[in-house]
Amino acid sequence: MRGPGLSLAAAALVLLAGCRERGEPPAAPDDLPPAVTVPFAPPPFTLRRLQASQYRRAVEALLGPEAAAAVTPPEDAAINGFKAIGNAQLSISTATALRYESSAFAAADAALATASQRAWLVGCEPSDACMRSFVARFGRRAFRRSLTDEEASAWTAAGADAALALNDFYGGAGAVVAGMLQSPDFLYLVEVGAPDPERPGRWALTGPELAARMAFFLTGGPPSDRLLDAAEAGELGTDEGRRRWAWRLALSGGARAALREFWGEHLGLDALSTLAKDPAAFPDFSPALAADMREETLAFADDVVWDEDLDARELLRARFTFASAALSDLYGVERPAGGFGRVPLPAGGMRAGLLGQAGFLALRAHEAQTSPTRRGLFVRERLLCEPVSQPPAQVGAMLPPPEGAVTMRERLAVHRADPVCAGCHGMMDDIGLGLESFDGLGRFRTLDQGVEIDPASELDGRAFAGAAELGELLAEDPRVMRCLQRNLFRAAVGHVETPGEAAPMFEMEEAFAASGYRLRALLVEMAASDAFRSGAPPEVTP
Amino acid sequence: MSPGRTFRLSRRDVLRGAGALVALPALEAMLGTDGTAYADGTPLPLRFGVFFFGNGVIKSRWVPAEVGAAWSLSEELAPLLNVKDYLNVSSGREIKVADLRGHHNGAAAILSATPFIPLPPNGAPYSSKFGGPSIDQVAADLIGGTTTIKSLQLAVSKRPEKEQGPTVQFISHRGPDSPLEPEVSPASLFTRLFGGGLAADPRTRVRLNALDAVREDARRLQQRLGAADRARLDAHLTAISEVRREILSSAPAGTGACVLPAAVTETNADVNGVEPLQAVSRAMSDLWALAWACDLTRVVSFQHHGATSSTVFASEGQTAAEHLLTHDSATQDQVHDAVVVTMRNGGYLLEKLRATPEGAGNLLDRSCVLITSDVCEGLYHSGTDYPIVVAGRAGGALRYPGVHDRATASENTSDVLLSCLQAVGTGLASVGGGSAASATPCAGILT
What we know:
Chain A is mainly alpha-helical. Chain A contains 27 helices and eleven strands.
């Protein structure tokens, strides 16, 4: 039988191969089947360990800034582009557990260092009843749900025992804190779910579980007491209630920081902290400049999404950016007042949007030169969601060392001439060659090796020259906003979207378009969607 | 006193009795008179280590010219001059994992003898996982069980590839979903090895009680989960048990070389964007030797720099990541320089192990250290004529003085892994799985 599942597999294979004849349009505009053909069938829920940034935010919410400054959570490993996916699949090691252990005690010590901190955190005069009420209150916030009687008794006993051992009530409270911060109920988003009361036969997150997923996605931190109260009272059990809370969270203080985490991973900005450049080629480069590049892109995205609520396609074509004095000099634009701020980019110039920013142009380059291939690969993989195959074995032998000074376009001509290379490299190099007017640091230039640069190139048969025109093409390309949406979803739920989720993905896409591509509207749609709260029933039911 | 087979000093006792570089006189008494076993007749332990470096070598400058017993060091092996007798060089072998992805195939083959698991991207960036445990973990399960730390993972460069999944980011894996995070800070490692608590300290009791309460939580949670999540929580529970063991640990009597160093302060922080590779590699090597001398662990993996990492060898005047250098035919001399620096650091480690006495010999006499990479030559992503050095005598199981064993028919690199595992007394008859599995040890390097 040849059902939609089969043709889907075939489409996936075509995309996995990832390469095609030059100029040929994309094989399939989308690798998910048309929404109507596949019934909604989400994958099962999994435990997802908090990411380091989420752990820090949770400690801050529970214990205050002193404790958050004292913690040293382990670094997370990404899979398929996101730590959220790695943390939904990988187990922890002894070294990781040790790190959590020392971090938990450091947090507890920092949180209980002064009398006023102790009063704020514990909130009652030392007594058995006080320990019990502290456990119930702190435990509910730490585990993001009310404790069972059994749990409350166990942790109260642990606190009392520690208080006895240390001869100090607050030492006992600290032991509860340090213990709960090591508990899987704190360290993981525990998502077990229950039969969905709204849709018989389906399985969905419980109210508190959904509250936690929404809060970590939209604010980067745990749910507030009010959200937990609302969830336990069933407010997230309706579409309207979910939407109302999603808007509230998306407009709350943590939302910017949470989305910054996403950009850091999705655009690869985290790699700027270890970027290396050849000082002979780029004497202006320094780790401080790399930090400016990161802040530029993040501040720019903040402005588009939060301050002005612009069409997200402006990310690709906006004629302004944010810059430090050093970055302004690199771009050849006037320095902003106050050291760092918004600067206009000249109309009609080649620089606009994310692809005109150094955080892309310098990061996707070699240490002394540009790399049209790496720039093109980024656009294919990260902006278009089109993976490119790896080079064939023995590929190194095909690139002879350059003899004398040759331009990058000349060097890459071998990719074009050799049919073994052309299929994949055409996909990448064509994009990058259109950005050759920006050097390996992102500075505008007209010459490469003394030869005038011809930035005329094409994206899938459509002509462009420079970042501004490429940005315009990408802004008009439906693949780009769909790809952004997919990536946000992956980071939000900790898995790559599956064929069974095609229908809600399609609905989200429609809603995103209907909003005029407002990213905050997409965040809310996503958090309120069926795909966000539903899972397959577990094979072992409780 | 613990009911263990040897007298044990608590780590705190060791610390109390030892200032910087003070040996513990009582420990010598624990050895038998012939210096090959403890006084109660238990043989001295055998140990296994992996010294891994990313992105391969320059084959023409790595492979020794002569084959057999009368071989001389190549340019890239020259830094190992002072321990040459302890080296068995294997060449001419091939990894038996299909080239679905460069670096991934080599890392999986040479570290686990098992093909890796590609994670289909569906439009997401490519990633992969190991298909089975890495051989250091196979060894740890069989020879590491009685020590405080079942196995230790160390790394020098903090620039591993982080965008392609666990296969290339980590070298030690319990299984596909359990890569093992390495220690990158010698100062933290020092604390882990020698900063243990004292049983009588109320703080220790509090730490243990907290872990017990956590364990109860985990067990309650287990009952609510499906099979896959239960397995992950099992791994978490195992980690908690091992943390417990480390908190309670004490340093067993090994040899007179179990000596407390002055506190280690190197934290592996970048200096102006440059990694202190040599200083960290040496500090880690010192602690590795000490961890073995004190029998805190018997299995160590050491990632000098990772596969496709962005490590820069600034000491050689380089500014580009070594992985990028490997892919440019014009910069192969710089790749060579990086290999030489790496082997110099490897030489420091091996010399340190040889200089650490144990019984009648030294640590290298009773250990096997596998030195290898994720690719033969980075420029070609080649998996043939693979670079492998097996260092140490493993209690007499490995040839000494060592030989250059050259395979003639592209035999499986996994044969060498099996030889290592057999040499350190695991009793295994085969290693790995799928196309890369081996049941035929490389006889040429075994006695």
